[in-house]
Design goal:
This protein has 225 residues and is α+β, with helices and mostly antiparallel strands. The chain has a single domain, classed as Transposase IS200-like (Alpha-Beta Plaits). The protein is 46% helix and 12% strand. It has a four-stranded antiparallel β-sheet with strand order 2-3-1-4. It starts with a strand and ends with a helix.
Length: 225
C-alpha cells in the first residue's frame, strides 16, 4: 500500500482481448470506475490487443487485487456476450511487481507507453490512442490518470512538466533494463536496488529477488568430505 506497482494482465494463450474500439473503451470505463471505488491511483497504462499494462499506486489494502478482479470479471462477461463465446479470457491472475520510485518509476512510464512502438503498431507513442502517453506528454485530459508526485515535481505548470516528460522518451527502454522489468513483473519481485528489495522482503515476508541458478555454495566441499 502506498508503493507504486507495475501490473500486467494477459489474454489466455495470448489470445485477442480487444478486437475493436468499443472493447478498449469498455475496459477503460470499468478501470476508471473501479480504480476510484478501490482507491487505486493510475499513473500510466496501455491497452494492447492481447494484454494490459498499468503503473499504479494502491491507497488501501488489497486495492489492486480488488480492482483487477472486478474489472476482469465484468470485461469477460461483456466480451463473451459480444463475441458469442464462453470460457476464460485472461491468463490466470494478473502479475505485478513493486517499483522503487526514485530509480525506476519513469523507466516504467516509458516501458508501458512505448509498448505499441516496440510491437511495431505505431511509429511514435503519441500515435497510439489507448495509452496514457497523450495525457502525460501532451496534456490530453483524462479522469483515469492521476499524476504521480514525482511527475508533478517536473514543474509547477503543465507545459514544462509535459516537456520534461517528453524528454524521457529520447532513449527507448532496452537491453538489461528491459529484461529486468519483465523478470520482476512476471516473477512478482521488487524492481529496485538490493536495499529496496530487502526492505520489501522484510515488510511482506516474500522473496523479492531471483534465486541464483546453479548448485548451492559449498556443494563440492560437502561431497568431498
Amino acid at each position: 500500500m502506498g508503493i507504486a506497482q507495475h501490473v500486467i494482465q494477459r489474454g489466455n494463450n495470448r489470445q485477442v482481448c480487444f478486437a475493436c474500439e468499443q472493447d478498449f473503451a469498455a475496459y477503460a470505463d470499468w478501470l476508471l470506475e473501479y480504480s476510484i471505488k478501490y482507491q487505486v491511483d493510475i499513473h500510466a497504462w496501455v491497452l494492447m490487443t492481447n494484454h494490459v499494462h498499468l503503473l499504479c499506486t494502491p491507497r488501501a489494502e488489497n486495492a489492486v487485487s480488488n480492482m483487477m478482479q472486478a474489472v476482469g470479471r465484468l470485461y469477460v462477461r461483456y466480451f463473451n456476450v459480444s463475441y458469442k463465446r464462453s470460457g476464460t479470457l485472461w491468463e490466470g491472475r494478473f502479475k505485478s511487481c513493486l517499483v522503487q520510485e526514485e530509480s525506476y518509476l519513469f523507466q516504467l512510464y516509458c516501458y508501458i507507453e512505448l509498448n505499441p512502438v516496440r510491437a511495431g503498431m505505431v511509429e511514435l507513442p503519441s500515435d497510439y490512442a489507448w495509452s496514457s502517453y497523450q495525457i502525460n506528454a501532451l496534456g490530453k485530459e483524462s479522469a483515469l490518470c492521476t499524476p504521480h508526485p514525482l511527475y508533478l515535481a517536473f514543474g509547477s505548470e503543465p507545459a514544462p512538466r509535459q516537456a520534461a516528460y517528453r524528454d524521457l522518451f529520447k532513449d527507448h527502454v532496452a537491453g538489461e533494463l528491459l529484461a529486468d522489468i519483465r523478470l520482476a513483473t512476471n516473477k512478482g519481485m521488487a524492481l529496485g536496488n538490493e536495499r529496496f528489495a530487502a526492505e520489501v522482503e522484510s515488510l511482506t515476508g516474500h522473496r523479492m529477488t531471483a534465486q541464483k541458478v546453479g548448485r548451492p555454495a559449498g556443494w563440492r566441499k560437502k561431497t568431498e568430505e
